[in-house]
Amino acid sequence: MSRTRNTRASRLATAGVALTTATLLAAALSPAAHADARPTRATAIANAAQALVQHATALGLTSTEGTAVRDVIVDKSGTQHVRYDRTYRDLPVLGGDFVVHLKSDGAYRSADRATRSRISLASIVPDVSAPKAADLAVNALRAANLGDALKQVRAKPELVVDALHGTPKLAWRTNAVGKDSLGNPVARTVLTDARTGAQIDAWDSIETATGDGKSLYSGTVPLETTQSGSTYNLTDPTRGNTYTGDAANKTDLCIFGICISRAPSTVFTDADNHWGTGATSDRSSAAVDAQYGTNETWDYYKNVHGRNGIAGDGKGSYNRVHYGNSYNNAFWDDSCFCMTYGDGDGTTFGPLVALDVAGHEMTHGVTSKTAALTYSGESGGLNEATSDILGTLVEWYANNSSDPGDYLIGEKIVRSGFGKTALRYMDQPSKDGSSADYWSSSVGNLDVHYSSGVANHFAYLLAEGSGAKTINGVSYNSPTYNGSTVTGIGRDKLGAIWYRALTVYMTSSTNYAGARTATLNAAKDLYGNGSTEYNAVAAAWSAVNVN
User: What element of type H or E holds 318?
Assistant: First the structure.
């Protein structure tokens, strides 16, 4: 993705900065923020642009590199946090992202960088061709799906600079997609050394949670709809026109710009504005759950964290239900800005439209617009844990008597064939048979849904503390690595700390040690250095062996 190099500060502030002589001069002339008023987003970007000029060396920026603003946070105190993506000779840099922190008067305070490696490549011409990279990615996709007879497989390579895995190198980031034997989508991102053809890393591209209307799981719920003539559409004008449509049990593969086919998203309509029957035989019942899940997630982020929509821009997403053939999955897809739900196979899972699943998957959208945690290794575990943690807090926020808040993930969708009562257990993650309770040097080698256990366990301990207890009728017994007793500080403070750490301090490469630092910084900002909350964060991380 190329970025235009602008020569005026007003343009530079919106499109990022490339450090040519002209942009350096323009940025230096940008007006400072008024000290007597809370800075606007535009002012914060202009202040950050000046900081990039003044601290280019510390940020590792050179004349060959460009930047683009990804996100902006302005605190009530006026302090500002501007998040950037980086390019090198117009190529995206994986691990090039950073956050600039500014004081209330716009002066530079500090920065958090995903990586600190200096980028200097002899050439950006690859030795491995794009078609060869595509073939390697397709082979990796087939291997990851255990020889399933995949159909309609496609791959789209993009040349990037990989700074996430040691010394920066030229690489192909290839998104490979296809359909499995049931016609459901599979996708994998493969990172290939553009010099040697060696695979650097690979991860699943579909982020999953193996995991008035009458809903399947949440009882009768209120819905905001839109009237059109004599009928009503399941479109919510109060939440960015979010709507729910029927995918008609079809699938699509419009992921990362590759469109093989697209399932419909035909908006549900109703004659009397009373939706669903609460039974799976009525296709609109699942739609009620999906729309309700979107509503509660939207409201949680807006009312608790001040975030207006998933992307923070007030625009609604949309939902598709009845996707695929007995599809045991649900996923958020940035390319369509939409949530998609399968019906489950009936034996392992029921329809995957439960409230905490909705909160989990849409939180992947929030993560992609903020820290963009890489979906592999420890950062991948943190990505999944972020969705578990904040998705769980959505469920608590909803305060629905038919689906009361708990620290179980996906408990409503599991069926007898799954063999467990939930997908994951935050108080003691290892109860699922695969997740990690504590950090170890090998935790990053686990599937991201299992390495997430360390952060999930931390979150439970921070909110509720250690030991045995019953909450909302569910029994928990959370152990600690070091035998310590942890006293919880409550769910509200957990959510405030984790959300601020995610949106202000975490970057694409944040690992568990970095998450400890990020959450301590967040607790210090919110409650003070050495506060009860700050000390609780430190104690909870130590209790899961992150020191």
Answer: strand 318-323
Contact 291, 285 (CB under 8 A): no
What average pLDDT does the segment 94-109 reach? 96
Residue 273 contacts residue 231 (beta carbons within 8 Å): no
Known catalytic residue at 165: no
Whether residue 449 lies in the annotated active site? yes
- Distance (Å, whole) CA 24 – CA 46: 13
Task: Quote the CA–CA distance of 46 and 62 in Å, as a whole number.
Answer: 19
Q: pTM for this structure?
A: 0.82
What residue type is 336 in one-letter code? Answer: C
Residue whose pair of structure tokens reads 């399947």 in the numeric block: 216
Please check the confidence at residue 7 and state whether its pLDDT lies above 50: no
Secondary structure (DSSP) of 107-129: -EEEEEES--PPP--S----SS-
pLDDT in tens, 253-292: 656 556 567 788 999 999 989 999 999 999 999 999 999 9
Cα–Cα distance for residue pair 109/80, rounded to 1 Å: 9
- Dump pLDDT digits (tens) for 154-202: 899 999 999 999 999 999 999 998 877 766 677 889 999 999 999 999 9
Rg of the Cα atoms in the chain = 23
Please tell me the distance from the alpha carbon of residue 301 to that of residue 363, in angstroms, as a whole number: 10
Angle at 495 between CA 494 and CA 499, to 5 degrees: 120
The whole-number pLDDT of residue 9 equals 25
Tell me the three state secondary structure of residue 439: coil
Which residue out of 296, 361, 378, 411 is catalytically annotated?
361
Residues in the chain: 547
Active-site residue, from 101, 305, 449, 457 = 449
CB atoms within 10 A of CB 545: 18
Other residues' Cβ atoms within 10 Å of the Cβ of residue 5: 17
In Å, how far are 26, 406, 492 from 472, measured between CA atoms? 58, 7, 16
Contact 236, 438 (CB under 8 A): no
Give the rounded percent of residues in the chain with a pLDDT score beyond 90. Answer: 79
Paired with 214 in beta bridges are: 220
Q: Which amino acid is at 392?
A: T
